[in-house]
Amino acid sequence: MAQVKFTPNLQRFFPDLRACEVDAATIAEVVDAVDMRWRGLGDYIIDEQGALRKHVNIFIGDELIRDKRRLSDAVSADTRVYIMQALSGG
Amino acid sequence: MHDKLLVGTRKGLLIMSRQGRADWTVESAHFEAIPVPYAVHDPRTDTLWVSLDHGHWGGKLHRSHDLGASWEEVEAPKYPEGDSVPPDFSVPAKTNYIWLIEPGGVDEPNRLYLGTDPGGLFISDDGGDSFQLVETLWKHPTNTHWFGAGRDHPGTVAIVVDPRDSRRLTVGISVGGVYVSADGGESWEARNRGLYADYLPDPQHEYGHDPHIILASPSNPDVLWQQNHCGMYRSVDGGRQWRDISDKSGGPAGFGFALALDAEDERVAWVAPAVSAEYRVPVDRALVICRTEDGGETWQDLRAGLPQRDCYDLVFRHALDVHEDALAFGTTAGNFYVSDDRGDRWRCLLHNLAVVYSVRFM
After folding, report:
1. Which residue of B has its CA nearest to A80?
2. How far apart are CA A56 and CA A17, in angstroms?
3. Count of domains in chain A?
4. ipTM score assigned to the predicted complex
5. pLDDT digit string, tens, across residues B234-286
6. Which of A32, B172, B232, B239 has the smallest number of Cβ neighbours within 10 A?
7. CA distance B150 to chain A (A)
């Protein structure tokens, strides 16, 4: 099971959001899985075409994912996935 | 010459001046209706430099040798053909925005630096006639840890030239972190120890920090200050170790963009706080400038003359400046404030500007 952690900033919109484990082979499947658990969360992370939103970062370990358009980066059982907010404003 | 101010706004450049006992007034307006991210006076050559952000025509650079009576466009910096933007290199590199124009040292009057989006540092050694990308920084092996902040791509937002040795450079990339060169830009070392990045999986990672602005105390250039995305930091050893100097007493100094340093006293600085990265509004919807006189141990709130209710003004990173006892800043709501007593009392001179991007004494 991949471990998924979220920026605490998403708790403003999903108050019971917490780190979790999901069964997924790609980042796209990770997003699907967390959207199943917190309905609507996926729309905060990806757009209607399935691409990562411009000001969201997803890390695998310490590395940013490569495929922001289709989220095809592979995920394995011991992968740590971080869904973080990119920085905006200023 | 410090009786003039350059104010870069979303709708053009204002040159303000004051004479004798009269207050500051707008002397002239330039580049009307064009966004001006940055404007600065180069005292070495008595030249004004202005960056423009045309919506349609790209980032441009202009200079004036007669203090704004006439302007000359110089060729804007260009990324090498085929280059692409870190961290994923999927987007072709082009000059989207000129964040910053920084004169070189007094011993190298023809050198000028530009900080750009995406993440570029450009050098001119011919007085700004031409600029070359500093490839050693642009292609630094750590650039896979850079990314956009506010704008889509990383930006070079801070350039510090050591007045004791012009080859010593400190550069801030937002997001990327602090990079230092001891050899005029030929090689670079990341210096982010002590910084915290709450938006990274590992907040104390060696790279990927977000300095909004970095300045060196003129009286002791080993003392560096930065207003970071995740707090206020100060270093006494040229950035080898940073210390969190955010207000621990519950006061507002913490998140923000702008920073100004006293020329004589390395312990004195001013910042313009907002609530936090997620709540980019003034603390309690009241405008405040904070001053430390002890290197960030304690902070004082300076509020006299600033709006204390229903206020949504923020101060962008290059929009606060100091000269001797005078301070000036402009806001995102188009207000312009000055103080003659180091921030103890403020007065609003202009209420109806466009968003203010930069304020610099000249």
Report:
1. B201
2. 17
3. 1
4. 0.73
5. 999 999 999 999 999 999 999 999 999 999 999 999 999 999 988 899 999 99
6. A32
7. 3
